């Protein structure tokens, strides 16, 4: 139940953020909903990837200078981790893609 609420809240926040951007720029929401969702997904994904790469870079630097390995946090392989927030972003992206295709179907 808690995870479902987090997924729904994530989708609601993403919708509100994109609606605010469309209102501020004076564009139609349908025009930016998919690309905005894709941009938000990209930012979240790159943040997760860059955190792991930063740990690996520090570990490589320490090992290069003194031959020791940092064992405190441990550096893992970047695995796809489906958290409730990431699931909400992916579901929003899929729903916005479907809405965009249905809306612009006459142009295909």
Structure explained in plain terms:
This is DUF3899 domain-containing protein. The chain crosses the membrane at residues 5-21, 27-46, 85-105. Keywords: Membrane, Transmembrane, Transmembrane helix. There is one protein chain. The protein has 108 residues and is mostly helical. It has one domain. Helix content is 76%, strand content 0%. It is elongated. The mean pLDDT is 84.
Summarize the biggest pleated sheet: none
Which percent range describes the beta-strand content?
under 5%
Computed Rg: 19 Å
Mean pLDDT: 84
Low-confidence segments = none
Q: What is the helix/strand order? A: HHH
Question: Looking at the structure, what is the overall shape?
Answer: elongated
Tell me the number of strands.
0
Helix percent reads over 70%
> What's the number of domains?
1
How many distinct helices?
Answer: 3
Classification by helices and strands = mainly alpha
- Determine the N-to-C terminus distance: 40 Å
């Amino acid at each position: 139940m808690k995870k479902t609420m987090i997924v729904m809240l994530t989708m609601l926040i993403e919708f509100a953020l994109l609606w605010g951007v469309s209102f501020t720029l004076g564009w139609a929401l349908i025009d930016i909903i998919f690309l905005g969702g894709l941009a938000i997904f990209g930012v979240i994904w790159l943040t997760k990837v860059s955190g792991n790469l930063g740990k690996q870079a520090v570990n490589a630097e320490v090992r290069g200078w003194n031959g020791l390995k940092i064992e405190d946090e441990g550096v893992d392989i970047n695995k796809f981790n489906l958290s409730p927030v990431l699931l909400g972003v992916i579901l929003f992206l899929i729903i916005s893609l479907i809405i965009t295709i249905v809306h612009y179907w006459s142009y295909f």
